[in-house]
């Protein structure tokens, strides 16, 4: 029996944030991303939202033995949904694939009180740069809604628990990309 897979479209694309094996590029049809807030977390984060005319790049990775407990705990603000028929990938056969998404009824607007953490965004962008190059970064921005959300610049004291070190070159690329969205940064403690 083949182990199930998850489709990651945010921080799970950065394989430095997890130990799930068999990671491979994939594309999810009929979905796009959005920045949202939910009462289950203090800050905004990405979710997948149904959109018939959209596709998003990401990674699939194996969930050994179908033991979803650790991943469900990490993704506690999300629902795990079946996505097998919507994911294009290069794996043989038809493995079970799930995607995590925040239920529409639990999504709230993003505010200065619930901003996007720059340390989280850096992790996501680093994953996309490594897996899909600069073209993939641009595709990420183009298939993500909510860039009007404030971004809290916490790089000096990262609040995201799985933050990663980014290089000076990555920082320049990410800052230019973020600036191109028109997103507004707010400073920690301001």
Secondary structure tally: strands: 10
**Secondary structure tally, helices:** 3
The helix/strand order is EEEHEEEEHEEHE
If you compute it from the alpha carbons, what radius of gyration comes out, rounded to the nearest whole angstrom? 16 Å
Explain how this protein is built:
- The protein is globular, with a radius of gyration of 16 Å.
- With 190 residues, the protein is an alpha/beta fold.
- Helix 2 crosses helix 3 (168-181).
- Strands 1, 2, 3, 4, 5, 6 and 8 form a seven-stranded mixed beta sheet that branches. Strands 7-9-10 form a three-stranded parallel beta sheet.
- It is built from three helices and ten strands.
Give me the secondary-structure topology.
Layout: E1 5-8, E2 24-36, E3 45-62, H1 69-74, E4 79-82, E5 87-89, E6 97-101, E7 116-117, H2 118-142, E8 144-145, E9 151-153, H3 168-181, E10 185-187
Parallel strand pairs: 1-6, 2-8, 7-9, 9-10
Antiparallel strand pairs: 1-3, 2-3, 2-5, 4-6
Helix pairs in contact: 2-3
Task: List key phrases describing it.
190 residues, alpha/beta, 7-stranded mixed beta sheet, 3-stranded parallel beta sheet, 3 helices, globular
Write a brief structural summary:
The chain has helices at 69-74, 118-142, 168-181; strands spanning 5-8, 24-36, 45-62, 79-82, 87-89, 97-101, 116-117, 144-145, 151-153, 185-187. It is an alpha/beta fold.
């Amino acid at each position: 029996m083949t182990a199930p897979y998850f489709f990651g479209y945010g921080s799970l694309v950065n394989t430095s944030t997890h130990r799930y094996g068999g990671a491979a590029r994939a594309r999810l049809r009929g979905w796009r991303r959005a920045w949202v807030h939910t009462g289950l977390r203090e800050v905004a984060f990405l979710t997948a939202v149904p959109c018939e005319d959209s596709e998003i790049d990401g990674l699939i990775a194996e969930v050994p033995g179908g033991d979803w407990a650790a991943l469900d705990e990490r993704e506690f603000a999300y629902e795990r949904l079946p996505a097998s028929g919507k994911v294009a990938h290069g794996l043989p056969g038809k493995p079970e694939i799930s995607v995590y998404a925040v239920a529409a009824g639990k999504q709230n607007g993003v505010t200065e009180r619930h901003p996007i953490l720059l340390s989280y965004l850096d992790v996501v962008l680093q994953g996309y740069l490594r897996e899909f190059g600069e073209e993939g970064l641009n595709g990420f921005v183009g298939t993500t809604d909510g860039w009007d959300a404030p971004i809290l610049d916490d790089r000096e004291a990262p609040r995201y628990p799985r933050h990663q070190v980014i290089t000076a070159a990555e920082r320049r690329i990410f800052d230019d990309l973020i600036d191109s969205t028109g997103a507004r940064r707010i400073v920690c403690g301001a």
